[in-house]
Each structure stands twice: as structure tokens, then as C-alpha cells.
Amino acid sequence: MGGGSARSALTLASRTLRTRCVTYLPATSASLQLLEAKSLTGRPENGSSSGGDQHIFSKDSWQTLLTFAAAGLMAFTGSSFSVAAGAPVLTEDETAENAGRASFKSTNPRVIFVLGGPGSGKGTQCAKIVDSYGFVHLSAGDLLRAEINSGSENGTMIQNTIKEGKIVPSEVTVRLLQKAMEECNSNNFLIDGFPRNEENRAVFEHVTGIEPEFILFFDCPEEEMEKRILSRNQGREDDNLETIRKRFKVFLDSTVPVVNHYETTGKVRKINATRSVDDVFDMVQPLFKHFVQDDLLWATEELLRGIDTGDYSTYQRLCHPKLTAFEPEAQGQLVEGLDFHKFYFDLGKALKSSSGTHGPAVQSTIVAPKVVLLGTNAGVVTYTRLQQIPSSPKAGHTSAHNETRVWERQKNDAGEWEWKHIHFHRSAAPTT
Ligand SMILES: Nc1ncnc2c1ncn2[C@@H]1O[C@H](COP(=O)(O)OP(=O)(O)OP(=O)(O)O)[C@@H](O)[C@H]1O
Ligand SMILES: Nc1ccn([C@H]2C[C@H](O)[C@@H](COP(=O)(O)O)O2)c(=O)n1
């Protein structure tokens, strides 16, 4: 499982760890950091002989920071993955509850507002982003149309407002969006056609407290949008020339000021939407790749937390049943499947219950992570893992391993994207 020795498994199973809040300090002195990194990791590429441009930390000061922070070598505000000793032990029920949660659902949803004139291609591009990047698409217009069709008490008011090309009162739209987000087992949302005006923006912010990651803005001339809408053929009541013209005016008068507001915060990502659907998507994709990388790192952190806490259900949920691995425990053999790894979880549990130990927790820190995507559905994460092991072989001992973990993104039975761990390689990191 990549969790170390049976002794460490005992400690892993004895406490459950909690991730600390993360803050990064801007690093300022690369040369000093490089010098100290050498003394910490002993990586030859960190030495002066390999030259300042070749070492792994030189381009990413935050990665360097992680290294020093992990070693307590500098003023420290966190690491990409650090766990607090002394966190409460989870009950069996709590562990089971964690296991049932969606991988990336947290209290901090990732929201992207998608704006652009009527017919600029928002819905079309959102569908492609959903397909490739696993976001949930919430179209404010679709939610309002569904509300009309549901026969709700607001239905007639919404219908008349839409027919007029006007904007529905914000509390109605925000309530629908909030409900849809809550019902969704995801943390990544594309909110399309919203906020349509300043009031939409203010009410959403007030009610949800969510700040968008960025605003994806499709820029398209009116003639092109008009042409597209008139040949859309979806039977929409507002796709007639008279209403289209009104919608264009509302867009200019009410939505463009919202875009301008976000311009001042540097959050607008403007895309030229006049080209073909595929060309436009090519311009959109770079804005989403780093989310996939973040999620992959997050999945890796969750996996390590599962290992450190002896939480086999988390491990099993994140791993493909045919996971393959090279690790020191396997004596140079490639092992396949989860049984080999489960042994250490079971052993840790058994040792814990026989000794009744409640020592401090094992603490894993990921140092210098690199995430390489292979398309949008596979990726490789490499890093050095520092494990602070309270009891083995001597109190406070730190072990260092280099780990390479390969992940594949698959759709589960509910049609949701999930990362599955399919292969790893773990070796002792050189310490001199
Ligand atoms: N880049 C494009 N080139 C040509 N046609 C496009 C392009 N993008 C979308 N379309 C077509 O234009 C029409 C409008 O696109 P879409 O429904 O995605 O726009 P929208 O911005 O979501 O519109 P609305 O705000 O009215 O809901 C659709 O018929 C779609 O197939
Ligand atoms: N935030 C919103 C979004 C949409 N509407 C109404 C008014 C729009 O003309 C209509 C259709 O929206 P679309 O599908 O074009 O995004 O829905 C609103 O009032 N407030």
C-alpha cells in the first residue's frame, strides 16, 4: 500500500489525521533555499554542481517552500499536505461516512460563471467542458424553464419575464441555483447565463458566500449570435426576432456591466467565440487543465491520508481493484490487486487493538509534487513523501520515499467522473 512497515501501520491505524489549512509564503531567496534543500533531501540535482537552472525547485518557489517547511527550516505556514497530530480518532461510523462521500465534494465549491450574449455558444461549450473536465453544468435559463414546466407558483411570472426578454428576480434564480448545487454530488460547477445583472451577482454572493474562480466570457458579434439563435431550432419561446433584440439590449445594459466589474478584479477570461465550435473549445481548454491537475493532487493527498489513518475503505474507493505496484515490501515483484496492501491495514488494526496504543499520529508531507497529464483522463503524480513516524525506529523518525502514482479518470455508475489509482512505484529516497 505504500504505507511503510508494520510498526508504522500500527501507528497509522491508531489515530486519524486531519488536513491543516494551507497557506503559502512567497519564497524570495532561491539560492539560500537551494542550499538548504540539498541538506534536507540529499538529492544530487539540488546540489550546486548541477547548476542553478537544473534543480527541481528552481522554477517553483512554492515547491521549495514546501521542502523547507516540511523540515522546519524556515518560517512556516503550511504544506500542500500536512496533517495535524493529536486530531480526534474517528469512530467506525465517521470513517464509513467519509468513505461514502464524493471524492472532491467539500464545503468550498469551485464555481465558474459563463457569460456571453444570447447565442454566443455558452451552452455548447459548457457541454464540451462537462465531457472533458467533469464539471457540472448549471444553466440559469434551463433551471428557470424547468421551473415553468414544473407548474410552480412562480411559473407564470418567470414565463412572462422570459418572453419579454427581461431578467427574473434574483432571489428566484439564486434559490434554484443553490438548490441544484446542493443536490449535486460535485464540487465543480459551470454556472451558465449567470449573473445576468448586478443584482444577480450581489444576491448570489450574499446568499452563498461563493466567489467565482473566473468568468468565462464568450465574445461574439450580434449578427453572428442572431444568425445562430434563429437557426437553433429548439422550440424556445424567446428565440424570435423581437425577443432576441430585447435580449441583446438587456445583455448590453445589464450583463456587460457585470463583466466590467469582474474585469477590475482580473477574473475575466475572454474567448473569441466567432470561430467554429472546436476552435473555440481549443481556446477554452487551457483554462481548465490546472483544475484536473489540482484534483489529481487532491486525490493523491486523500489516498495518503487514507493510508496514514489506516482507513482501508478510502483506499479501496480510490484504487482500481487491479492496482499494480512496485514497492519495497513486495521485494522487487510487481504485485497486482488490493489484497497485498489490505494486509497492512488489517495488521495495523490488529496490533492497535492488541496493544491499545493511542500514540501520536504518523504525518505525511508531500514534497515537490509534479503532476503530468496524459490527455484529460490520465495522469502521473510524482513526489517525495516524508513520513514522520512517532515510534519507529526511534521517536520522531522521518522516512523519505519517492513515489510515482498513475491515475485514470473513469465514469462511475452514476455517470460521475472519478479518479482511480491504477499503478504506483515507491522506492526509498536517497538521504545522503
Ligand atoms: N462556435 C459556433 N459556431 C457555430 N454555431 C455555434 C457555435 N457555438 C454554438 N453554435 C450554435 O449556435 C446556437 C446557440 O448556441 P448555444 O445554445 O450554445 O448558445 P447560448 O450562448 O447558450 O445561448 P442562450 O444564451 O440563448 O442560451 C446553437 O444552435 C449552437 O449549435
Ligand atoms: N440569470 C438569469 C438567466 C436567465 N434568465 C432568463 C432570461 C433569459 O432571457 C432567459 C433565457 O436564458 P438563457 O437560456 O438564454 O441563458 O432566462 C434570467 O432571468 N436570469
Automatic annotation (TrEMBL):
CDD domains: ADK. Binds 1 Mg(2+) ion per monomer. Its EC number is 2.7.4.14. It comes from the Eukaryota. Keywords: ATP-binding, Cytoplasm, Kinase, Nucleotide-binding, Nucleus, Pyrimidine biosynthesis, Transferase. The keyword ATP-binding applies. CMP binds at residue 200. Residues 295-430 form the Calcium/calmodulin-dependent protein kinase II association-domain domain. It catalyses: CMP + ATP = CDP + ADP; dCMP + ATP = dCDP + ADP; UMP + ATP = UDP + ADP. ATP binds at residues 119-124, 232, 275. Its main location: cytoplasm. The keyword Protease does not apply. It is found in: Cytoplasm; Nucleus. Its cofactor is Mg(2+). Coiled coil: none annotated. Monomer. Belongs to the adenylate kinase family. UMP-CMP kinase subfamily. Consists of three domains, a large central CORE domain and two small peripheral domains, NMPbind and LID, which undergo movements during catalysis. The LID domain closes over the site of phosphoryl transfer upon ATP binding. Assembling and dissambling the active center during each catalytic cycle provides an effective means to prevent ATP hydrolysis. This is UMP-CMP kinase. It comes from Sphagnum jensenii.
